[in-house]
Amino acid sequence: MNTTGVAIIRLMVAVLDGCCFVSHLREEGDRGRFLGLVGNVSAIVGVLLAFGAGIARIMGMYLVAGYTTMTLFQVGTGLMVLACLCKLEAIQSH
Q1: Per DSSP, what are the bridge partners of residue 93?
Q2: Residue 4 in 3-state DSSP?
């Protein structure tokens, strides 16, 4: 497995650990901070994925790590939408 796959698996484990952590949050402020953190992380990963897919496609590559560049671009866009929803919920919880 390449380093990209390992990094994705570590990110997924961290997100799943965070989801288990959400059920134990007692205060509303903790939930808002957690959603803000999830929003920030997903925004950064989404922008990097979309940007990387765009650069790879401009360079003439159709596949990156076994995935098509369009798939990576769509995943990046989805992560950015998730970031917007998390941030909106965090703002609303204040």
Answers
A1: none
A2: helix
Interatomic CA distance for residues 39 and 33, integer angstroms: 10
Q: Distance between terminal CA atoms of the chain?
A: 42
Task: Say which residue, 70 or 15, is predicted with more confidence.
Answer: 70
Three-state DSSP state, 63:
strand
Q: Which of 12 and 36 is assigned the larger pLDDT?
A: 36
* Structure letter (DSSP) for residue 65: T
- 0.85 cut: is pTM over it? no
Burial grade of 72 (CB within 10 A; 0-12, 13-18, 19 or more):
buried
What value, to the nearest 5°, has the Cα angle with vertex 17 and ends 94 and 73? Answer: 80
Residue 74 phi, psi (nearest 5): -65, -40
Q: CA nearest 5: which of 51, 65, 56, 46?
A: 65
